[in-house]
Amino acid sequence: MQARENLRNVAIVAHVDHGKTTLVDAMLKQAGSFRENQDVAERVMDSMDQERERGITIAAKNTGIQLGDVHVNVVDTPGHADFGGEVERTLHMVESVMLLVDAAEGPLPQTRFVLSKALSLGLKPIVVINKCDRGDARPEEVLNMVYELFMDLGADDEQLEFPVLYAVARDGWAVRGESMAEPPGEALHPKVLESDESRSLKPLFDTLIENVPMPQVDFDAPLQMQVNAIGYDEYVGRLAIGRIIAGRMTKNQEVRAWGVDDKITKGKVTSLKTFQALSRVEIDEASAGDLVCVSGLEAVAPGDTITPVDSGEALPRLKVDEPTLSMVFSVNKGPFAGLEGKYVTSRNIRDRLEKEVRGNVALKVEEMETPDQFRVSGRGELSLAVLIESMRREGFEFCVSRPEVVIKEVEGQKVEPQERLVVDIPDTSVGSITETIGKRGGQMVDMGEVVNGRARVEYLLPTRGLIGFRSLFLTLTRGEGLMSTLFDKWIPYLGQVEARSNGAIIALDKGRTTAYALFALQPRGVLFIGEGVEVYQGMIIGEHAKNNDLDVNCVKAKQLTNFRAAGKDDANVLSPPRNLSLEDCMEWIDMDELIEVTPDSIRLRKRVLVPNQRPKKGKKVKE
User: What is the value of pTM for the model shown?
Assistant: First the structure.
């Protein structure tokens, strides 16, 4: 085995919104990856439309920076727990992780998840306390919390000797702590936190070169490359992204890919590229330790091993945690079916879902008894919402059911997933939140000190209890609460938990809504649509104030006569409707309801459209 002195591989991991992508921006700029006059957007690594709109990283991405003679491959990973599969597979590509922690919020659930995965793989950590310029920053206390987390996760002595840096990624600077237990004191003085052109990320760069282990490789062994991700290029087709574990790979080399159950497909390396800043640079040869992008193998999938065509063995396949939530995707059979979508058949939906599964190792798709339905399982509501949103933007039209937890049988006993919920809320809301979570099968396990009128409380509850909880949580905390969740473990099935208590207001006739009809319905509940919207029988137009469903005529017009009467010309003033996003709809619907998704609209409807054929609320509905 030889050490590659001129190469380092590191992944940046953290809880969502702790500054990973912002730090990568600053690293790229200060490493000289851009021209002086080059126009570079913020969060340049978030290249997907939904990533920019949502402000989160969804897919892991690779980049590279040159620090003198050393090339550093940097992997920017998602911070949301729903995309944990992306983190798990990319950690196999690196020797070290840079753990970012917010100087005010401290370690949160996803921090625990990514750190546990990194420690279990034996990766060497570097801790960066970010956002030290926040008014409520508490870097010393947060560092102690990080150290306790390392101890709790069973880190070994070498991993506990992690270097610590204090940074403001937005301003592009970092300072080095003398040791784990000794923050740099004066370096974080308020005066120093002010703008200072002399500060930079050089301490971080030096730490990377000194502390990230050099890849230990065997150049003379047969080629072995582990495929960690899949990409697509309109010119060369399917791309395999991963790390060369052993040997060398050359352009135009004949290779084979070992798939599931050692199924072998042969191909030729038509293109071989490495990562440099935002670009992929064409090379003729890559060696063990390099992160590369390869084209020429159309059937390759994440977890496959690429070896020479006449030798080599497959590496163990990548394993990720199992999905915990599922939804049923089905063909739209409503009255408006096919009016807005381009791809509407079950074959279109099946092909698109199969394509998604080939590149997303954390997703599972199963065909159901009827050929027009597919059960899609993922890590959480957000991961499924991102898939649904991507499909509707591509022109697909379909229906989806209410999210359901995955129920398994272990040794003859039904088990379900349990979540660890951490909330940061006003201390006046602790009682109401705890009571609500108790009704959903949860219990409080930890509560920190009340600081500036806010408390951090930790709960354990079944995943089913979180469906529809977010909107209620924001109501109970008056919009001031912060919550984050993480899969904890599988527990015995707890039975029935509290679900939505309000019924639905349902359209009785097909037509266009009128202000006259909606004005009379306003006292009955909250409306989801306004005047002049096309509706059909069985379409949900609002939330009933009581617990039963209400079928109404929302297209009724005012009767016109030749007689004048007092109040005849009074204006019907409508309150603004509650506009539900896709995630809001997923939280709101019940088991006997569906979300109709098209490129132009998102509608709610009953499974059974005709009122007198609909089962009574509370009875089990066949899917």
Answer: 0.83
